[in-house]
Amino acid sequence: MCGIVGYIGSKSALDILLDGLTNLEYRGYDSAGIAVNIDGMVELYKAEGKLQNLKDITEANRTHITKSTIGIGHIRWATHGAPTTINAHPHSCNCGKIAVVHNGIIENYKELRENLEKQGCVFRSQTDTETVAHLVAHKYAQTNDLTEAVRLATKEIEGAYALCVIHQDVKDTIVATRRNAPLLVGIGEGEYYLASDVPAIIQHTKKAMYIDDNQIVTLTPNSMKYIDTDKNVLEPKIEHLPWEPVALSKMGYKHFMLKEIHEQPDVVRNVLSGKLKAIDEKIKLDEVTLNANDFKNLTRIQIVACGTSLHAAMIGKYIIEDFCGIPVDVEPASEFIYRRTITDKNTLVIGVSQSGETADTITAVRQAKALGSHILIVTNRPDSTMAREANSLVPVNAGIEVSVAATKSYMAQVISFYLLAIYMAEVKESMELSELNKLKHELIVLPQKIEEVLAHKESIKACAKRFANAKDFIFIARGINFPTALEGALKLKEISYINATGYTAGELKHGPIAMLDESMPVLSILITGKVYEKILSNSEEAKARNARMIALTNSTDEKINDLFEAIIRVPEIDELVSPALAIVPLQLLAYYIAEFLGKDVDQPRNLAKSVTVE
Ligand code: AGP
Fold this sequence. Notes:
- It contains 19 helices and 24 strands.
- With about 625 residues, the chain is of the alpha/beta class.
- The protein folds into 3 domains: about 5-250, Aminohydrolase, N-terminal nucleophile (Ntn) domain (Glutamine Phosphoribosylpyrophosphate, subunit 1, domain 1, 4-Layer Sandwich), CATH 3.60.20.10; about 255-450, Glucose-6-phosphate isomerase like protein, domain 1 (Rossmann fold, 3-Layer(aba) Sandwich), CATH 3.40.50; about 460-595, Glucose-6-phosphate isomerase like protein, domain 1 (Rossmann fold), CATH 3.40.50.10490.
- The mean pLDDT is about 95.
- Bound molecules: 2-deoxy-2-amino glucitol-6-phosphate.
- 2-deoxy-2-amino glucitol-6-phosphate binds next to helix 10.
C-alpha cells in the first residue's frame, strides 16, 4: 500500500523516480508526488489521481526538474485524508526545507500534531505523514544532523512506517528508515536507489539490501551509513535480486491481468520444477524444516490469509484434511488477530500471502509464533517481511504479479498446497501410493489442460459479452470447488464492480434462492465426481426460479445442454485437482466482463496490491 522510490547519484532523478512510480502504481493510485533538490532548494511536485497527472505536471517543467540528481517519490493509497493534491506526498515542514514520503500509518499522529501545533507548526494536510515532516524539522533544528533528526523522530512515532527524508541544506543525502513496512536500498555505481518494492528499481540494479525494522540508512552518492535506532553500526547484507525486468512488461497483452492469466501454464511448471520430479519420486520441499516426528505430534493446522490467498488456503484445508487426516482451520487473518489466539507448539500455523507484506497476516503469524507454533509461510515473495517470520517456507515462484487482481499467484499458491499436502501425506504415510501417483500425474499434465482452456478464450469472451450487463452474479459449487466459486466471484466484483457472491450450492435453498429471477445469472461449477449430481439438482432448483444458468463443466453429459443457457467447457480432470483448472475460465470471464464495461482492469478503484495497513 503506497509506493516509495528514491534516487541519489549522478544521473537526473526525474525519470528514475517516474519510472519507479510507474512500476509501483499497483500499490496505490490515488495521488502521486516527487521532491527534488534544485540549486539548493527542495521543490515538490504533486498531483491528485493517476500517476499520469503528475507526469503531465513534471513534463511541463522538465528542463528545470531534470537538473536534480537526488529525489524521492510516492504513489498513494489514501488512509488519512482524502486523495487530494494537498494530501499527496511528499510532505514538508513550515520552512519547506524538508520533504518526507511515507508508507504506513503513524498511529499517534493526533497527539504529535497537537503538540507540534502548540509549538507553532502550521499543518496544510489532513495526513498522518505531515507530522513526521514537522517532527524531523524540529529535531533537525536541535541537532543540525539529518540522520540524528530522523532517529530522534522515530523514538516518538508509533505505528508502521517506511520513510525517506531529504533536507535542502544537506543536498547530497537521503535518510531512510522503516518499522513494519517494506523498504530496500538498490546499489549502483556511485548511486543508490530506495524503494518499497523491487519493481521500482529492478531495471537499474539487482544488487540490493533490505532494511529491517528500526534501522536507518543514510545515503550519499558514494556512501551508505547503516545503523539501528540505538546508534549501533550495522554490517550491510547485500543480496542479489532474483527478478527479471521483463516481468514488468505487458508483452503485447492489453493488460497485465490478461498477461498473467496466460502465464499460468508456465507458473504451474515452475512451481512443480525441482519439487515434483517424477511420479515415483517423493515431493521435495527443501525449506520445510518439519520432520516426521514433528508431523506425528501435530494436532492441528491453522491457516491465516486474506482475500484471494484465503481462497487458496481454503483449498489447502480441503486437501490436507483429505490426504493427511489432520484437522485444518482457515480464518481471515483480520479476524484471527482480534480474538484469543489458541495455537500452541503442536499447531502448525500456515500464513499465505502473495506479497508477504499484508499487515493482517503478518500480525496473525507473529501472534501464533509468540505462542510457540511452527510458522510455515507460503508466499510469492521469499524476500518479504512475512517470509522472515518463517520457520518453514514454501516459495511459490509465480514471478512479479503486477495486476491488482491476483491470478497467477493464486494458481501458484494452489499448486503449492497440492505439493505440501502430498508431501505431508508421504511423510505421514496417510495415503495409498496409487492415489498419490494419480494426483502427481494430474499435476504434471495440468499445464496442457490450462493451455487448452486459454486456447478457447474466445468462447469465454462471447459468454462475458452476453452477461456483462448483469447487476448481480451468483457462483455456486460444492466441496473442493466452493473456494473456486468464492474466488470467481471476488475476481468479478473487484474488477467489474458487479455484485457477485459465491455460495455452496446446497446453501442456496436456505436463503439466497429468494434473490433468483430472470435477471440473475447463476454460474454452476459442475465438475464430475462426488458432488456432481448434487450440484446438478441445485442448478435445476435455480433454473426453476428462472435464473439465467451458466455451467462451468468438464462433463460431456448431454442432459446439461437444456439446463444451461451457456456452457463453459474445461478438459477432463480429477475432481481433487479441478480447482486449479476451473479458476482459469472464471478469471477470463471476469476479465472480459470488466473489459466490456470499460473498467480499469489492472487498477480497480479503491484497491491496492499489497495491503500493508490493518
Ligand atoms: C486479490 O485479487 C486481491 N487483490 C486481494 O484479495 C489479495 O489477495 C489480498 O489483499 C491478500 O494479499 P496477499 O496475498 O498479498 O497477502
